[in-house]
Design a protein that fits this description.
The protein has 93 residues and is mostly helical. Helices cover 62% and strands 0% of the residues. The chain has helices spanning 20-37, 41-44, 47-56, 61-65, 72-92. The two termini are 19 Å apart.
């Protein structure tokens, strides 16, 4: 596949370049979660937030809370599954 981002998609933040597989896994999870909760995917977590998560590879709740757009409520609601994804990827890499 073509690496990099679609043209006209500047990096949104000061975090490291996100891991593509990780970002894809987070997006898939977000779609799945949206289906279960009936909330549109981007309402739960914005693309920029997923990009930051994939770039920063947060490992703890404290890490998650430092991600832009990720407050205590989201950390409580989405933190555990997101940390599972991030940790799983880190270990299989």
């Amino acid at each position: 596949g073509k690496s990099g981002r679609p043209t006209g998609q500047p990096r949104r933040g000061p975090w490291p370049e996100p891991d593509g597989d990780l970002q894809a896994a987070l997006r898939a999870w977000r779609v799945e979660t949206a289906r279960h909760t009936g909330v549109p995917p981007h309402v739960g977590l914005h693309d920029a937030t997923l990009e930051a998560l994939a770039g920063l590879r947060s490992r703890t709740m404290e890490d998650l809370l430092s991600v832009p757009g990720f407050g205590p409520v989201k950390a409580q609601r989405y933190g555990p599954p997101i940390l599972d994804i991030l940790t799983e990827r880190a270990e299989s890499a």
